[in-house]
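Thread: "does anyone have the structure for this chain?"

Original post by V.I.:
We have the sequence but no experimental structure in hand. Need at least a predicted one for the grant figures.
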Amino acid sequence: MTTSPLAVVLLSGGLDSTTVAAIARDRGYRLLALTVDYNQRHRIELAHAARVAADMGAERHVTLPLDLRAFGGSALTDDIDVPKDGVQPGIPVTYVPARNTVFLSLALAWAEAAGATDLFIGVNALDYSGYPDCRPDFIRAFEDMAAQATKAGVEGSRFTVHTPLIDMSKAEIVQEAARLGVDLGTTWSCYDPTPDNRHCGECDSCRLRHKGFEEAGLPDPTVYA
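Reply from O.Q.:
Generated one for you, tokens below.
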């Protein structure tokens, strides 16, 4: 009997990563879900990630503590205001230095330990905030690095970083999630939650989320302040 392959899915509890987990499951992968608790401003997403991992039937869900507030340098990990004036050109202050490089490296370590060669991440190069580590060139470079940096790689295994959302609009991501039966009401996107745990409705992430539902022609289940 053939066993379905394992994949490590980076799961933040957001719309994109949840949709990616559903895609990986739909493609026949067994899921190892990795959430990084980097002491982010919006730590409420950790509870959402746990719920999503359970809903997706992940074989294991690891929430790994890694306090990036020790470095700072981002509105998500430092005492810097989250922008509320709309998505602007350039790289915003919500960019966390090298975050996807760090997170993918952790996913790679778990994949190698578990005997998996497939990693899934919800990066998007179309409707996003301009982060450099969401581009196809970065993903290809990471795969090349993984081939050189791991025992499995030098022994001939090839790690694949799957980015099924990379060329999708936010509306297309919402539609794909709906097709796969994902309850997006369980996901969290806001970078600056209100004290009563509602989406602020004004940060880049909230704006992109709402725009996605609106353009997809589907009701937005999010509770915004």
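V.I.: this helps a lot. DSSP finds seven helices and five strands in the chain.
O.Q.: and Helices lie at 15-26, 45-55, 99-114, 136-149, 151-154, 170-179, 204-216.
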